[in-house]
């Protein structure tokens, strides 16, 4: 039973973490691994994940982040050549401060000059060699959003901290097993875990999500998972029938003859995903959201405590992205920069 395996593996991970918690030597390694495990599990189509639409009390709301004095950024880069981007401008010119969403080098954002921030809270058109469409990124409690009223309506009554919804058409046919989402970096994590931890993580994840690729120990860490088995909502519509991505309601699965739970379970396994394709005629909508990471203050909420992820990432930003595993090309890539990364950039 897939859900049973998932619960059992998560329990095993937590036991491992807390059993070693008292050892200061291993704490920093195990704790970092736990963060990545949790986030990888979210990416991997957790079948027990219901959407986290429980209304929060005022005390549970994420507090707005107080910005710090501005200083220029030195570099924002990710592992592959095509993902390397120019540095954004000085922080005091960021239109959505403390956040700056920087498109990857091969991502052309319409009506936005190279190096400018992508819009936040409103849809924007973009194009890459593999995909053409539009995206909408919402970040909870970002007062500098281009549409804070719509953002507030979307997040009301939900625990979610972010949403990224992408809609458009593929420029060539691609197998579902070839399209991945996740995170990848050019520099190692700060205080990266030892190899034995990486091996434990990989063993556990293979049982519940065989399509996940995770490497925490190398100089180019990554956590990747099949896109079709990871997003909370996936639609395949005839052109003209696609939903409005500005909708406040969740987009229901359509076009694969599977409900969301079965679709995530099936397409997380490359053996099944390889039997299906994304074609060039259909308009696809990918809806993903998260309740663990606040991009406004770069805190990760583990329920029992919050962790400052700017201390972990070595000055590198989180990403919203999808890529081809076979050739490394990006369907989309948006770097979620935050000025707090500058304070903890190991290269600075």
In words, what does this structure look like?
With 348 residues, the protein is an alpha+beta fold. It contains seven helices and 17 strands. The protein has helices spanning 2-19, 24-43, 148-155, 195-208, 260-267, 270-273, 340-343, and strands spanning 99-103, 108-109, 124-127, 131-139, 162-170, 174-175, 179-184, 213-215, 222-226, 233-237, 277-278, 283-290, 293-294, 299-301, 306-308, 318-324, 330-338. A six-stranded antiparallel beta sheet has the order 1-17-16-7-9-8. A six-stranded antiparallel beta sheet has the order 2-3-4-5-12-10, with no helix packed on it. A three-stranded antiparallel beta sheet has the order 13-14-15, with no helix packed on it. Strand 3 (124-127) and strand 4 form a beta hairpin.
Largest beta sheet, briefly?
Answer: 6 strands, antiparallel
Average predicted local confidence, pLDDT:
79
Tell me how many strands there are: 17
Strand order of the largest sheet: 1-17-16-7-9-8
Global shape:
globular
Helix and strand succession? Answer: HHEEEEHEEEHEEEHHEEEEEEEH
Q: Give me the oligomer status.
A: single chain
Estimated radius of gyration? 19 Å
Percentage beta strand: 15-25%
Individual helix count: 7
Low-confidence stretches: 2-6, 8-31, 40-85
Q: Which secondary-structure class do the elements indicate?
A: alpha+beta
Helix coverage percent: 10-25%
Distance from first to last alpha carbon: 48 Å
């Amino acid at each position: 039973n897939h859900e049973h395996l998932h619960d059992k593996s998560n329990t095993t991970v937590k036991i491992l973490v807390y059993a070693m918690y008292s050892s200061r030597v291993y704490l920093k390694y195990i704790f970092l691994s736990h963060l990545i495990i949790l986030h990888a599990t979210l990416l991997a189509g957790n079948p027990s994940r219901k959407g986290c639409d429980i209304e929060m009390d005022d005390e549970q709301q994420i507090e707005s982040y107080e910005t710090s004095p501005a200083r220029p950024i030195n570099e924002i880069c990710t592992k592959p050549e095509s993902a390397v981007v120019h540095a954004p401008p000085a922080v005091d010119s960021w239109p959505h401060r403390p956040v700056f969403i920087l498109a990857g080098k091969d991502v052309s954002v319409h009506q936005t000059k190279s190096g400018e921030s992508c819009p936040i809270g409103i849809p924007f058109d973009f194009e890459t060699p593999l995909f053409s469409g539009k995206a909408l990124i919402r970040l909870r409690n970002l007062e500098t959003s281009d549409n804070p009223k719509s953002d507030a309506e979307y997040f009301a009554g939900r625990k979610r901290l972010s949403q990224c919804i992408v809609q458009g058409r593929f420029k060539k046919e691609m197998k579902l097993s070839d399209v991945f989402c996740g995170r990848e970096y050019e520099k190692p994590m700060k205080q990266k875990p030892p190899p034995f931890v990486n091996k434990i993580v990989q063993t556990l994840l293979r049982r519940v999500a065989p399509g996940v690729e995770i490497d925490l120990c190398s100089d180019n860490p990554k956590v990747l998972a099949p896109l079709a088995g990871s997003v909370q909502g996936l639609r395949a519509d005839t052109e003209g029938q696609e939903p409005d991505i500005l909708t406040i309601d969740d987009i229901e699965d359509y076009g694969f003859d599977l409900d969301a739970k079965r679709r995530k379970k099936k397409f997380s396994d490359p053996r099944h995903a390889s039997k299906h394709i994304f074609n060039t005629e259909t308009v696809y909508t990918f809806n993903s959201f998260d309740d663990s990471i606040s991009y406004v203050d770069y805190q990760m909420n583990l329920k029992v405590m919050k962790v400052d992820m700017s201390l972990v990432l070595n000055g590198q930003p989180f990403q919203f992205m999808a890529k081809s595993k076979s050739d490394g090309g990006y369907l989309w890539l948006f770097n979620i920069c935050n000025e707090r990364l500058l304070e903890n950039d190991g290269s600075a």
